[in-house]
Amino acid sequence: MSISVAPASAQAGPRPLTIASVPSGHVYVRHLAPEGATHEARVRRLPDPPPRVADPEPGQWWPPAMLDPAWVRAHDFDLLHLHFGFDALRPEDLVAFADAVHDTGRGLVQTVHDLRNPHHADRGLHDEQLDALVPRADALLTLTPGAAEEIRRRWGREATVVPHPHVVDLRTMAVAADCRARRRTGAFRVGLHVKSLRASMAPMRLLPTLAETVADLPDAVLQVNAHRDVMEGGAREDVELRGWLRRAAEAGRVDLRVHDFLPDDELWAYLGSLDLSVLPYRFGTHSGWLEACRDLGTTVLAPTCGYFAEQGPVLGYEHDEDHVDLDSLASAVRRAHAERPRWGAGIDERRAQRREVARAHERVYADVARAHGRPVER
To answer: Where is this region: Disordered (predicted)?
Structure first.
């Protein structure tokens, strides 16, 4: 996918720009830098400050301390780049945060990842949050042309389109590609991951048709992975889903795997074992899960809602908040089984893309910093 970036007036020089990135440690943000240490010559991201909660988990960055106006005023940086983490804040809190960034002479950059929050059943709060942030950002980025067009339509703002970089590390991608090339036998494995049931997920709309379709295909298995909090009386327990999955597993129609949150190495091994990953989303915008599947050579079956199909080559079926076309779902599964498409992203492609993504961010940062009088060497 091409990157549409307006040419910057000049490139950032040897003085590193200090970026307060919200967050910094998330894999998406880490992969905005090119491989190696040369990125430090142009951009330096502050580490995530400890969240102001009791007993944070190792590596926890949420809720982000950087969104507190007092933190903004007390720390030195050139500009702030907001990605995630504002879900629970009131719109007026976000206005105060943006004002603090500007009052202290710094610029605000926002990457609009979600135009509809996948965790919110009702879109009202997220819309109000974006109404507070998007008009106040000095520069906007997003991941797909469709999202950029929606931003233009809703706020009259232009967003630079920069594609999602790889999620899986390049070494693991290489191992996964080798394993897939050597795998010549075994069932065609269709995966549906219900995880901890985000509000955007509607697995029960799909599962009966998926099970019936896969059962009619030779040498095919439907695998469903669920977290324990969905299946065993946890915070996201779904009685209907749990009952259906247990009965289907007992009847041999579903290979059911129940587990806790998977560490990355186990998650990548699981995704790499699938031939087709079905996204059960009824609303949303973009997907890191989709990108991880592409990294591992797993074909994705994505809904027509959001802009998932613009992220890369996928199979599609009709699904949004109000409607699902189960015939299109079954047809896509049968096509995947018959054609075995291999639409993953190769290592060379991801490596080159990552360099372009890093350069695009450097140009945006340099332009915003100059506009706010921050020194950037030519």
So the answer is: 38-58
